[in-house]
Structures are given as C-alpha cells and as structure tokens.
Design brief:
The complex is a heterodimer of chains A (291) and B (277). By secondary structure, chain A is of the alpha/beta class. Chain A has a domain of 63 residues. Chain A contains nine helices and 13 strands. The C terminus of chain A is likely disordered. Chain B is built from 15 helices and no strands. With 277 residues, chain B is mostly helical. In chain B, helix 9 packs parallel to helix 13. Classes of the chains: A alpha/beta (291), B mainly alpha (277). Bound molecules: adenosine-5'-triphosphate, magnesium ion and zinc ion. Chain A: InterPro entries: AAA+_ATPase, ABC_transporter-like_ATP-bd, ABC_transporter-like_CS, P-loop_NTPase. Chain A: Pfam families: ABC_tran (PF00005).
C-alpha cells in the first residue's frame, strides 16, 4: 500500500530579485511533527508560505494531499484542509479575541453561527485564552496575541498545520500548554513548525529540517542530528577560542562545542543546540540562534 | 484570570427572578454582565434552572458578549438579504469606518469651500477629491497594507476576489452617498454633481485590476497622482470640468469595463501574496 504524503515538494526554488530564498528544496511530509530550524534569512518563512499556498514557487513542484493545487477549486479544496499561522500575524482593529477567531472561522466556511461559535470556543480553550476572549485584541499581551493566531490555525482540526514561529513571545508555562496541543495535533495531522528555540524542537518533534541559505542542510530524526554532536561537546574550566562556540554557563564552567577537546575538559551530553551549531558552523554563530 | 467583581454578588432572589424572566431589563442586563465575570454566581444560578437549558442559555449570552454584538451595518445587510457570513466580512472590512469618515469630511469641506469660493476654485477642489474618495477607501480596506491578517486570510478557502469585491461594494456604498448628496445640494455644480461618479467608478475599477499586480495602496497613490495632474492641468486651462467632457466620460466607461475584464482574467493572482521576482 502506498500512502500519499501530505506534502511533497520537489526542486522548489524561489528567488527574490536574483537571490535565492529557496534553492532546490525537496521535502516530503506525513503525519507527525517536523521542526524547521535555520538562521535568520534561511528561507523558513518562504518555505512555509509556499507550502501554505500563499506564495507561488519560481520553479519546482508543490503537491499537497496528492494534488497539485492548480485551479481555484483545487486550491480551495487544499486550503480547507490546512491551518496556517504566518510569522507576521496582525489583527484588524476593533476586534475582540473571540471576534477575530470568529471572523477567521467565517473565512474558513463555518457558516452556521452556533456551530461556528462552538468551534471558536473550543480552539480558544485549547490555547488557554477563553478567559480573555472578550477583550479587544489591542489590549492583549504579545504572547496572548501569538496564541490567538495559533487558535485560528487550529480551527476545524486541519490535516496540515503550518506554523511560523508559534512560540515566539510565549511564556514558558504557556509554551508547555502549546506543546501539549501540538503533540496531540501531531498524532493524526501533519505539523510543520519553524522556530529559533532548539528546545521546542527537542521537546516536540520527531523530525527536524535545517535550512541554511535556502538549502536543506539536514533532514532526519532529531536524535540523529543530536548524535552528530556526540564527542564534540565538553565542560572545561576556561573558554576555548578555537572552538565553534564556548560560553560560561551558570555553574561557572565553560561549555565548549568544537572539534577537539580542550585541556582538562570532560565530555558533556550533547544537545540539539550543540548539533545545530556544529552543523551550521560559523554561520550559526555569527547570525545567531536564540540560546 | 482575575475576576474582580467589586465585592457585589447577586442574591438568590434576583437569580431566581432572572431565571423566570421577571428581573426587569436593567437588572437582567447588569446581572448578565456580572455573570460573565463571576464564576460563583454562575454556579449558584444553576440551582434555579434546569441544567441543559442553563448551558444553552449561558453559552448564548457569553458568545454574544465576547463576539461583540453584530455591528449595525452587519444587521442592516442581513436584513437586506446579504448572507450572514458575507455581511460579517463586509462589516469587518478593516477601515470601513475610515472611508465613511473620509467621505463625510470631504463632503463637509467641499460644501464649505463651495460656499466660500463658488466658481472654479470650489469646482476644482471638488473634482480633485470626490472621485478619489472610493479609491482611497478600497486601498484602505483590502490587501497587506490595510488588513494585518491578509496573509492568514489568503490561506483560507474563502475566494480572495469575492472578498475584494465585497469590500469594494461596501466602501462604495459607504462613501459615495454622502459626497453625492452634498454635491446635489450645491446648485452651481449642475450636472457635474453626478458626472464625477463615472471617473470615480472607473478609477476604482482600475485599482481593482492593478491590485492583481501590485498592492492597492501603491496603485491608489499612482491613480491619485494621475487624476490630480489631469484636474490641475484642466483647471489651469480655465475649465476644470474639461475632465468630464463627453468624450472622456465615454473613455472612463470603456476603461472601467476593460479594468473589470482584466480583474476577471487575472483574479487567480489575488489568491497569493504578490511578490517581486
Ligand atoms: N517578499 C520578499 N521580498 C524580497 N525578499 C524576500 C521576501 N521574502 C523573503 N525574502 C528574502 O528571502 C530570504 C529568506 O527569507 P525568509 O523570510 O524565508 O527567512 P526566514 O528563515 O524565515 O528568516 P527569519 O528567521 O528571520 O524569519 C531572505 O534573504 C529575505 O531577505
Ligand atoms: Mg521567518
Ligand atoms: Zn458574583
């Protein structure tokens, strides 16, 4: 039996004024949660936009649920099955939290008022916003607004969930709540989320894709990426300027990520962040990944 | 969530009268407000009502309260036969209020100026601004610059062209009548008071067509500049109404129809973010 993948990208390329935001990307996704990592400008947003059908690729093929969304009917059929949280998600003025999600639900063809309101209530409860849903969006905090954006993406329990930095600005307690929501969604849906928090990926994702300069640099199990850092992370008493990265940790010792063990260092358990730093080398250090 | 209720709570008598429906409108409304915030009164009211009835009623009250009452415009549209979801989408066009206001302000300023100056000056000013009111209204009601949730809305199955046309219709309905009304009140305008509608509609159609290539705000700026140049040069040549010459009126009508054709042919490009490539 062949299973049709939810997302199949082949040779997807997108250029903006000559520079490639995506360069020959091949990616196949099925149910489960995939994390998308990469430095600023790596092409994560471009990839999510193309997958969400809001941006057309310059070259290559995008197949969603087994069809190429060419005509308006196919496009609408695909969009019925996806939930999308853009990186820059604003809200029109004057809406309450409930009113905004209600508005998005109308666009998602929830025409029956009672059923729609029940669904809006459900997703607001999922992201723990039911208590403040009557407030104006402009009176919500940044993290609350981010969760409101996530709530609209969850409407109708979509088969494909595309989330561009869903946890940005969200406090640790709420991040754990969101992890629970997303892990439940990932049991049956295909979830692709970009983030700068390697710990979100480590905590949530089965699979990780690392983009850099528009190219896929790694695509595989999270554990496999972490394993590439085995034997390349140490705790030392002094910083190591020759290493890929070294910093003083809260305990006073220095964590050293690199190729060679510094004198007097003891090996440390590698994390996803260490592996990411090693994979991207100097680029990751200079363009920065949120620690 | 914080549930400050100022220490006041409904007594059993009020709760039971409310449930029976004879608490009186003022007391009922203020109790409903209180129930939204007070879990303990919600719990206590349960004792007075059959349970399924209570749940249904409570959810209805809560949804109405948190969704915000349907706006007046929305209710009006529903009464006029517009499907309820479309009415909601029109009423929530990001800045319909702005286009109403612009229409109104322009009207008042024009009436004032017309009265003060009379003659060509007032006329030039009117011709300069009136046809651009709906253009500005549409530019501020649709697209990535006007609607901060534009990208999320694009990813929904709702047809982008339909949304654009709904909002355009709403902007026209909101902004044209006040300007038209005021223009008709000034006798000096004679038939100019009506003729400006043609370039107004034609420019709006051009805006829609161009929005399949570039964002509406950019096009609106370009159209505004072009129209301003046309009216000023006509005014310099001593007759501002030259922009409404019969031959030009025909041209506006033709251009408007062509623009709508372009919109229909290129409507697919409205379904994605425009991007330089
Ligand atoms: N609409 C656009 N116009 C021009 N250039 C663009 C556009 N969108 C993206 N780019 C360019 O494409 C590249 C990839 O951008 P993208 O937003 O996909 O990166 P990203 O990985 O999401 O970055 P970040 O982590 O900062 O969100 C960048 O160099 C960016 O400047
Ligand atoms: Mg991005
Ligand atoms: Zn109370």
């Amino acid at each position: 039996m062949t299973v049709v993948p939810t997302v199949a990208l082949t040779g997807v390329t997108k250029r903006f004024r000559g520079t490639a935001a995506l360069d020959d990307v091949h990616l196949t996704l099925g149910p489960g949660i995939t994390g998308l990592l990469g430095p600023n400008g790596a092409g994560k947003t471009t990839l999510l936009r193309i997958t969400a059908t809001v941006l057309t690729p310059g070259a290559g093929e995008v197949v969603l649920f087994g069809t190429r969304p060419a005509g308006p009917e196919q496009l609408a059929a695909v969009r019925r099955r996806l939930g999308y949280l853009p990186q820059e998600m604003g809200h029109p003025r004057g809406f309450t939290g409930f009113g905004f999600v209600d508005y998005m639900a109308v666009l998602k063809e929830w025409t029956d008022r009672a059923a729609r309101h029940a669904e809006v209530r459900r997703v607001l409860e999922l992201v723990d916003l039911d208590g403040v849903a009557a407030r104006r969006v402009s009176a919500l905090s940044g993290g609350q607004r981010r969760r409101l954006g996530l709530a609209q993406a969850l409407l109708g329990d979509p088969d494909l969930l595309l989330l561009d930095e869903p946890t940005t600005g969200v406090d640790p307690g709420q991040r754990v709540t969101l992890r629970q929501v997303l892990s439940r969604a990932g049991e049956r849906s295909t979830v692709l989320l970009s983030t700068h928090q390697t710990e979100d990926v480590a905590a949530l994702c089965d699979r990780v894709v690392v983009l850099d300069g528009g190219r896929v640099r790694f695509d595989g199990a999270v554990a496999d990426l972490v394993a590439t850092a085995a034997g390349r992370v140490w705790l030392a008493d002094a910083p190591d300027p020759a290493a890929r990265a070294s910093w003083r940790t809260g305990t006073g010792r220095h964590r050293v990520v690199g190729q060679a063990a510094p004198a007097g260092a003891e090996p440390a358990e590698p994390t996803l962040e260490d592996a990411y730093l090693l994979l991207l080398g100097e680029r990751a250090r200079t363009t920065g990944v949120a620690a | 969530m914080s549930t400050s209720t100022g220490g006041w709570h409904a007594d059993e008598d009020l709760l039971s009268r409310y449930v029976r429906g004879d608490a009186g409108p003022v007391a009922a409304a203020s109790l409903e407000q209180h129930l939204l915030r007070c879990a303990s009164c919600r719990d206590r009211i349960a004792a007075h009502v059959p349970v399924p009835l209570l749940d249904a009623a409570w959810e209805r009250v809560r949804d109405e309260a948190v969704a915000g009452r349907p706006r007046r415009l929305e209710r009006l549209l529903v009464r006029l036969g517009v499907p309820a979801p479309d009415a909601l989408l029109v009423a929530t066009a990001p800045s319909l209020r702005t286009s109403w206001l612009v229409g109104l302000v322009v009207t008042l300023v024009f009436v004032g100026l017309g009265a003060a100056y009379g003659g060509d000056r007032g006329l030039t000013f009117f011709l300069l601004v009136a046809p651009l009111v709906p253009v500005a209204g549409v530019a501020f009601a649709y697209g990535p610059d006007a609607d901060p949730s534009h990208e999320a809305a694009l990813a929904t199955p709702y047809p982008a062209t339909r949304l654009l046309l709904l909002r355009t219709a709403a902007v026209l309905a909101a902004s044209l009548p006040p300007v038209l009304l005021a223009a008709l009140l000034v006798p000096a305008l004679s038939w100019t008071a009506v003729a400006w509608l043609l370039p107004a509609l034609s420019l709006t159609a051009a805006l829609l067509a161009a929005s399949t290539w570039v964002r509406p705000t950019v096009t609106a700026a370009a159209l505004g500049a072009g129209w301003t140049a046309a009216v000023t040069s006509a005014s310099r040549a001593a007759d501002p109404t030259a922009v409404l010459a019969p031959a030009l009126l025909v041209a506006y009508a033709v251009l408007g129809c062509l623009a709508l054709l372009v919109l229909a042919l290129r409507s697919r490009s409205l379904t994605t973010l425009g991007s330089p490539s």
